[in-house]
Design goal:
Blueprint lengths: L3 H11 L7 H4 L7 E5 L2 E4 L4 E4 L2 H4 L8 H13 L12 H13 L4 E7 L2 H18 L7 E5 L8 H6 L3 H4 L9 E4 L4 H4 L5 H19 L4 E6 L15 H12 L2 E5 L13 H5 L5 E4 L11 E6 H9 L14 H16 L2 H18 L7 E7 L2 E6 L19 H11 L2 E2 L1 E3 L2 E4 L7 H25 L1
Parallel strand pairs: 3-13, 5-6, 5-7, 7-8, 8-9
Antiparallel strand pairs: 1-2, 2-3, 4-10, 9-10, 11-12, 12-15, 14-15
Helix pairs in contact: 4-14, 5-14, 10-11, 15-17, 16-17
Bound molecules: pyridoxal-5'-phosphate.
Pyridoxal-5'-phosphate (PLP) binds next to helix 6.
């Protein structure tokens, strides 16, 4: 096998990584992952690591699923590619479209395939605008999203997203996309109950609609739980109120379920958990458990009726829309999800257990707030705890305490992501109770290391 130093040097010389400061990374070297099995990874130095992030929120079924690689191999041998442009199709794509219609919330009979979540959100922008054009309201093109949302890295995806750092590069957002604040109780809910705050945060949408002009608003897009923004779990009152407001003005709802889809919250789609009746659902990642790139948009009846019913071609698509090999991987992933009753297990057993075990971390002197929903969870690192969650004292962001903690996680054999000083996890859905115990113990050890480090620095 190539030795680690050679791989690191070659990586440094040639490979431009996504979201990486190469100058800061310098010659220190990246960690080279070489193998995965279940919830564990091994790096090139033989170190075993518990993958608390399912790769990048996607390897929901864990690593080393032989039946997925077999399905991929067999499809490669039978028909490695054919497109679905110009009145052609392929067998796995047809079967997957039908399967998705069966497992989607009621009213979703159609799917548009893409190669990724970003492409799926680009598709959403074009699809909702086409919908309103066909309805004879071409002025209705504005899409409302939220700050700190992540909807991908293409021009439209990054514009829909609300990451300031992304907008600052390349003159984003593109015209016709505006943002409201995210429903972050910890940040903005002081003096309110969570339920009151949910209603308040939803009212920011109505303010924006009135500001833009309801006759110009095409759609609202949101992740049921904001993932990359720091696992922001909204109060239970938030989404029903968003739904009410969108219904009032006839605005379409796009639920971006790239992270939350395929069981992560204990429902096949989190829209069902939060009481959202979306018109379009973005999916990717978990649909193939990350084994092969695939994304898409589930198209609800309101949009499908117009898009299909009015005739004419939707001038949009990708070479790899409905790629047979990716669709074969997805069919097998969904089969495993169903056969092993994984979504049900997360809902009824391991999800509540993870919630209970993760909450015990709140007693750590560094942890101000720990919460979870199904198999996503986060905790906030604080300098000093206050009497309520709105009374905590936080670290100077320049100290990058989250990154310090992430470093200890890595060194101790655990992957946990830092979003500022919020530490987040989204582990594979196959985790057992015993593995949850192991993970929580590892997190506690890393918190202790971080605490000791900070104390030493004063
Ligand atoms: N939407 C959400 C909610 C995501 O979390 C992501 C990726 O993390 C995307 C869209 C973009 O998906 P992709 O990276 O497959 O383009």
């Amino acid at each position: 096998m190539d030795d680690t130093k050679t791989m690191q040097a070659s990586d440094h010389a040639h490979y431009l990584h996504p979201f990486t400061d190469h100058k800061a990374l310098g010659e220190r070297g990246v960690r080279v992952m070489v193998r995965g099995e279940g919830i564990y990874l091994w790096d090139s130095e033989g170190k075993k690591i518990l993958d608390g992030m399912s790769g990048l929120w996607c390897v929901n079924l864990g690593y080393g699923r032989h039946s997925i690689s077999k399905a991929v191999f067999e499809q490669m041998e039978t028909l490695p590619f054919y497109n679905s442009f110009f009145n052609t199709t392929n067998v796995p794509a047809v079967k997957l479209a039908e399967k998705l219609a069966r497992i989607a919330p009621p009213g979703f009979e159609h799917v548009f395939f893409t190669g990724s979540g970003s492409e799926a959100n680009d598709t959403n922008v074009r699809m909702v605008r086409r919908y309103w054009d066909l309805k004879g309201q071409p002025q209705r093109h504005t899409i409302i999203s939220r700050f700190n949302a992540y909807h991908g890295s293409t021009m439209a995806g990054a514009s829909l997203g609300g990451m300031e750092g992304m907008h600052a590069q390349g003159g984003l957002p593109i015209p016709g996309i505006v943002h409201i604040r995210q429903p972050n109780y910890l940040e903005a809910g002081r003096g309110m109950s969570e339920d009151e705050f949910g209603i308040e945060a939803a009212s920011w949408l109505e303010e924006k609609i009135l500001d833009v002009g309801p006759e110009k608003v095409a759609a609202f897009i949101g992740e049921p739980i904001q993932g990359a923004g720091g696992v922001v779990i909204p109060p239970s009152t938030y989404w029903p109120e968003i739904q009410r407001i969108c219904d009032k003005y006839g605005i379409l709802i796009i639920a971006d379920e790239v992270i939350t889809g395929f069981g992560r919250t204990g429902q096949m789609f989190a829209s069902e958990l939060f009481g959202i009746k979306p018109d379009l659902i973005t999916f990717a990642k978990g649909v193939t458990s990350g084994y092969i790139p695939l994304g898409g948009v589930l198209v609800g009846e309101r949009v499908a009726e117009v898009l299909i019913g009015q005739g004419g071609e939707f001038a949009h698509g990708f070479t790899y829309s409905g790629h047979p090999v990716a669709c074969a991987a997805a069919l097998e992933s969904i089969r495993i999800l169903e056969e092993e009753k994984i979504v049900q297990r997360v809902r009824e057993d391991t999800g509540p257990y993870l919630a209970q075990r993760f909450a015990t971390l709140s007693d750590h002197p560094l942890v101000g707030y720990a919460n979870s929903c199904g198999f996503v969870a986060g905790l906030n690192l604080v300098r000093r705890k206050g009497p309520t969650i709105h009374g905590h004292e936080y670290f100077d962001p320049k100290l990058e305490v989250g990154m310090v903690c992430r470093g200890y996680m890595f060194n101790n054999g655990m992957i946990m992501r830092a979003v500022g000083d919020r530490m987040i996890i989204a582990p594979p859905l196959i985790m057992t109770r015993g593995q949850i115990d192991e993970m929580v113990a590892l997190i506690r050890r890393c918190l202790d290391d971080t605490y000791a480090d900070l104390k030493q620095r004063g």
